[in-house]
Amino acid sequence: MKRYRNGEIWDFEHEVAVATNRPVILGLDGGTTSTVCICMPIMPFSDALPDPLPVLARAVAGCSNHNSVGETAARETLEQVMADALSKSGSNRSAVRAVCLAVSGVNHPTDQQRILTWLRDIFPTQVKLYVRNDAVAALASGTMGKLHGCVLIAGTGTIAYGFTEDGREARAAGAGPVLGDWGSGYGIAALALTAVIRAHDGRGPHTMLTSTILQTLGLCSADELIGWTYADPSWARIAALVPVVVSCAEAGDEVANKILKEAVQELALSVKAVVQRLGLCGADRKNSFPLVMVGGVLEANQRWDIGREVMDFISKDYPGAHPIRPKVEPAVGAALLALNEFMKECVQEAYRR
């Protein structure tokens, strides 16, 4: 077991009594905005999980998407958040039995292998390691660790990801704003900012978005919006304007309403693409399947309820879609995935003996 190049991160382990360590699992949800690590104990194999789940510790760090911050910074963030969770739980790496890293930016087997190789330098050889896209953890947070159905994430970014019961998988969107993740928080807010500029220079209709966004940002004119945007064009900073767009739509602004309606269609199309490719709906399009809905854009806390509109759009074609709003966060879903995979491998190893 190596200490990687950030060995000081693990200095706390000298103070942890190994003899008292209980077996634990780690689940990580790493996104563009933040990274969360959950430490949970190994639970007895059972069809029913305890309620509430026995979370030993929770740690939070910044962005761990290597496409956004670079590979070195992403690794440092992931290592730090795992160390923090273990430290808070009074555990160390010798107590870990399985780790599931569900990280945005993991889009190809080469991404998985690169992270697995790095993780293997950190943890003992007997630790089971699983690397997934963060959408997989979000799905598991709604299905309590089972990989079946479809998840729609709409926060700063957006992605739809699905699994069949026999393990086939498919995704739609999730390629980032440059490649057209419309329907995401960034996509909605970027269109709103564009609408303000178009209205200002005469290319677009007048919109309430102008005065509301300028007031929100403490700016005096649309010209200042250019400097504000390019001073820090980070995805999360732009996406934070989504509530402003929703409030203008609720007040009757036609431009804001059009932006949200187009976002609904884009999000629904992503789900439909996954459902069709995997055949989750069955030949008659009526089969039941879970549709997990995650992310701030989909939260039902506004009269203009984007999540409800998306579900209404989808249910017209797929009446068997069963919407689920998870009661646990994606990092817990990642931990449950690690637990399920670990238990499966233990059963298989026992059977081989």
UniProtKB/TrEMBL annotation:
GO terms for molecular function: glucosamine kinase activity; N-acetylglucosamine kinase activity. Residues 26-338 form the ATPase BadF/BadG/BcrA/BcrD type domain. It is an enzyme of class 2 (transferase). Its EC number is 2.7.1.59. Keywords: Kinase, Transferase. SUPFAM superfamilies: Actin-like ATPase domain (SSF53067). Belongs to the eukaryotic-type N-acetylglucosamine kinase family. This is N-acetyl-D-glucosamine kinase.
